[in-house]
Design brief:
The protein contains ten helices and eleven strands. By secondary structure, it is of the alpha+beta class. The strands form three sheets. It has a five-stranded antiparallel β-sheet, covered by helices on one side. The chain has a four-stranded antiparallel β-sheet with strand order 6-3-8-9, with no helix packed on it. Strands 1-2 form a two-stranded antiparallel sheet.
Length: about 300
């Protein structure tokens, strides 16, 4: 056990020593050579051209794509070689312009069942409830004294809406948020038949929170960056073969794929054809997907 620990410590010391110089790719090259893996094997595992692997190992920044790609390649390469990528990325960042630097810890997207939309709906419904209460209190100022007890009962019923569970509030539709046109008799509760035809514009408010669905299906590994029309980043990481990712946001979606031929995309249950937008040299693609599943070229 002591020999194993000493060997691990020696290996970490070697990696630290390599990181002291300006060749950020040296630790990756050394780790690959120790495993007996060739650059061709590494390129096949990473699904990138072999000359990119060689450029990374030899720290040839001028032969590498943008920092966004390189960070993803380094992290995937380090995972294959079973070494830490953080120090390699830190060394790489020291060699590139400050404006191009990317933190070594990538963005980790939250679960795709985003709660943001639910929060917006809850806020909207709360505002509507407050308006209804304000209307009740305004009507209550004209009620005769002998009918004040009925008004209080009706107001209490309205206040109870605040105690509804969040999931129940979201399920409310415009048919359940109505105005009362008058007071019931002393022996009756307020009847739905007495309700005015006029309704609060809940449908218009809820429509503003409508989201579009985008589905990624990977047949191989590819780096993916996806954001929606609001600028919100929905996905920013390597998607692995056979993975399926469901994303929700506001169309149009801006998409970048590091290995575009390895990913299929659907938007709102329609296949997206972006094959004509894939770069032949690097197999990358940058494009915009509309709500009706049409893809158009775009710049990063």
């Amino acid at each position: 056990m002591t020999d194993v620990n000493d060997s691990s410590a020696d290996q970490e010391s070697e990696v630290d020593a390599l990181l002291q110089n300006t060749e950020f790719g040296a630790p990756l090259r050394e780790a690959r050579e120790k495993t007996g893996m060739s650059t061709a094997d590494a390129a096949q595992s990473l699904l990138i051209p072999e000359d990119i692997v060689c450029a990374i190992e030899n720290s040839q920044i001028e032969k590498l794509p943008s920092a966004t790609f390189v960070i993803g390649y380094i992290r995937s390469y380090a995972r294959i070689l079973n070494i830490s990528a953080d120090q390699v990325i830190e060394s790489y960042n020291r060699m590139i312009p400050v404006d191009d630097q990317i933190p070594s810890i990538p963005f980790v997207p939250v679960d795709q069942k985003n709660t943001g939309n639910k929060t917006v709906v809850v806020m909207i419904v709360s505002i509507v409830v407050l308006l209804v209460l304000a209307w009740w209190f305004q009507q209550g100022t004209t009620v005769e004294p002998e009918k004040s007890s009925i008004t209080n009962d009706a107001t209490d019923s309205s206040v109870s809406v605040n105690s509804i569970d969040e999931d129940e509030i979201i399920s409310l539709n415009e048919d359940e948020l109505i105005k009362d046109t008058g007071l019931a008799s002393e022996n009756e509760l307020i009847d739905a038949s007495l309700v005015s035809e006029e309704k609060l514009p809940v449908s218009e408010l809820v429509a503003e929170t409508k989201t579009d669905e985008l589905i990624l299906t990977a047949i191989g590994e590819s780096w993916c960056e996806i954001s929606d029309a609001t600028g919100k980043r929905l996905f920013y990481q390597l998607i692995k073969a056979k993975q399926v990712k469901r994303l929700y946001g506001v169309a149009p979606f801006k998409v970048f794929l590091g290995d575009a031929s390895k990913v299929n995309i659907e938007t709102n249950n329609k296949d997206v054809d972006f094959s004509h937008l894939i770069s032949g040299n690097k197999n990358v693609a940058t494009f915009v997907i509309s709500a009706d599943s049409k893809a158009t070229a775009s710049s990063r």
